[in-house]
Write a structure and sequence with these properties.
GO molecular function, one term: dCMP deaminase activity
Shape: globular
Number of helices: 16
Number of strands: 13
Structural class: alpha/beta
InterPro entries: APOBEC/CMP_deaminase_Zn-bd, CMP_dCMP_dom, Cytidine_deaminase-like, dCMP_deaminase-rel
Function: Catalyzes the deamination of cytidine and deoxycytidine into uridine and deoxyuridine, respectively. May play an important role in testicular development and spermatogenesis.
Helix content: 25-40%
Order of helices and strands: HHHHEEHEHEHEHHHHHEHHEEHEHEEEE
Strand order of the largest sheet: 6-13-10-9-7-8
Keywords: Hydrolase, Metal-binding, Repeat, Zinc
EC number: 3.5.4.5
Distance between the termini: 33 Å
């Protein structure tokens, strides 16, 4: 019962904390996502990162032309089958409880190998959160790098055990090799899943439904009887359960036994494990539904002057949505009642990552200063008449946390961007400009408003930074010499993205 006991001990330790620091949990009326579950959810979400579209090399096309579709393609068919056997995997790299890397598998490289290329010996003493148990090729390298802990989602591993009979034996051999590497490793290889705190799912659902993106769509729907949000959420739940949850309980138990988790196959551990997994999938689907792929709604630049200049530099809508949903996931770590989070990423010309030409720089969420107790500072908002007991002068904003705890420097020659769940305030706008951020993707709630002790007047006046807010592209003017804005799915796509940490 070693694995099950470790899970219970970790849950008890997390539940016992009562401080609201940058890294701890808090006790209060607002449910808060534990860091362990946040890292797990981000690893699952990274697995779903929109795939990079790659063109086949011309040499390969010529070879196919020589042999034809039914020519000497046995080797190619074998390679294709091997790729299908390897499941795409998401990975979160954590150091000192701060995210320092977000990765996903590429067409050629597994997530663990990408982490080795990106971080190398800097992985020493890091914690790694995988969306699938890594294969032996990845595990031996990351163990060799001196990682502290490796946690993984306890379902179908990276080398799939749900494939056909021809590759099942190879998958079992790899699982045995992984288990042997685990048993001889100084690194702690385990499963870390915690039950969600009371009312967490309900809180996430309420805040997701009230998300400005959803509300903007709701106000313009011709038929108000259509609850597109609920429909979208049900579709996401089915989709994510298919991907992340083995449908057959018996098959799930067989997989757990094969990958060395036989202790979790006994009840109540197995039923608790399944329930925790289902709850996390539900939460992920709920948050993902708050920024749906709905008709022509997306993140666009509303400035007529800037459209001609930047329409070819903006992200594809599926990438922008993916990043904004990650920002919303991070926001549920906040110790502040107003959920707000940001992160930024940079483009580089070449990348081995499944995120294409983007890589992670840093992220943050609203929180009180590191080391503060929950009751140290005021928690009242602008509805409180007594200004002295309002929280605004004490909260460290998401943008400020992201800048402080960034894991890489911001290079002025590269295109950097941040994703914020709401409009940056006047306190943060100068920081964003001074840091050299090139693009902001944000909600437009409170833009141009002044509230008691906090103002959002400067965001609209920010120059030299491209601002993308949640618009309908039908509301935007069509740029001269281009039909790209009226047909967003036809816009040329820059190479892809990556992700951040609190």
């Amino acid at each position: 019962m070693k694995e099950a006991g470790q899970m219970q001990n970790l849950e008890s330790a997390e539940a016992g904390r009562s401080v609201s620091t940058q890294t701890g949990s808090m006790t209060g009326e607002i449910p808060r996502l534990s860091k362990v579950n946040l890292f797990t959810l981000l690893s699952l979400w990274m697995e779903l990162f929109p795939a990079v579209e790659t063109q086949r090399p011309k040499s390969q096309e010529k070879e196919e032309g020589k042999h034809g579709l039914l020519g000497d393609n046995e080797e190619m068919a074998k390679v294709s089958a091997d790729k299908k056997q390897v499941k795409r995997t998401g990975l979160v790299v954590v150091k000192n409880m701060k995210i320092v890397g977000l990765h996903c598998s590429s067409e050629d490289l597994h997530a663990g190998k990408i982490a080795m290329i990106k971080h190398g010996s800097r992985l020493k003493n890091c914690d790694l959160y995988f969306s699938r148990k890594p294969c032996s090729a990845c595990l031996k390298m990351i163990v060799n790098a001196g990682v502290n802990r490796i946690s993984y989602w306890p379902a179908d591993p990276e080398i799939s055990l749900l494939t056909g009979a021809s590759s099942y034996e190879d998958a079992k051999l790899d699982a045995k090799a992984v288990e042997r590497l685990k048993s001889n490793s100084r690194a702690h290889v385990c499963v870390l899943l915690q039950p969600l705190v009371c009312y967490m799912v309900q809180f996430v659902e309420e805040t997701s439904y009230k998300c400005d993106f959803i509300q903007k769509i709701s106000r313009t729907l011709p038929d108000t009887n259509i609850d597109f949000y609920s429909e979208c959420k049900q579709e996401r739940i089915k989709e994510y359960e298919t991907i992340f949850l083995v449908s057959s309980e018996e098959m799930h138990k067989q997989i757990l036994m094969t990958i060395g988790l036989e202790n979790l196959c006994e009840n109540p551990y197995f039923s608790n494990l399944r329930q925790n997994m289902k709850d996390l999938i539900l939460l992920l689907a709920t948050v993902a539904s708050s920024v749906p792929n709905f008709k022509h709604y997306g993140f666009y630049c509303g400035s007529t002057e800037q459209i001609n200049e930047i329409h070819n530099q903006s992200l594809p809508q599926e990438i922008a949505r993916h990043c904004m949903i990650q920002a919303r996931l991070l926001a549920y770590r906040t110790g502040d009642g107003k959920t707000g989070l940001c992160w930024f990423a940079h483009f580089s010309q070449k990348s081995c990552d499944g995120t294409g030409a983007m890589y992670f720089i840093g992220c943050g969420y609203n929180a009180f200063p590191v080391g503060s107790e929950y009751a140290d500072f005021p928690h009242m908002d602008d509805k409180q008449k007594d200004r002295e007991i309002r929280k605004f002068r004490y909260i460290v904003h998401a943008e400020q946390n992201a800048l402080t705890f960034r894991c890489q420097e911001i290079k002025p020659e590269e295109r950097s961007m941040i994703f914020v769940t709401k409009c940056p305030c006047d306190e943060c706008v100068p920081l964003i400009k001074g840091a050299g951020i090139k693009q902001i993707y944000a909600g437009d709630v409170d833009v141009g408003k002044k509230k008691a002790d906090i103002s959002y007047m400067r965001f609209g006046e920010l120059e030299g930074v491209s601002k993308f807010t949640n618009w309908s592209c039908s509301c935007l003017p069509t740029p001269r010499h281009s039909s790209a804005r009226s047909e967003p799915h036809l816009r040329p796509k820059p190479q892809l993205v990556a992700t951040p940490d609190p």
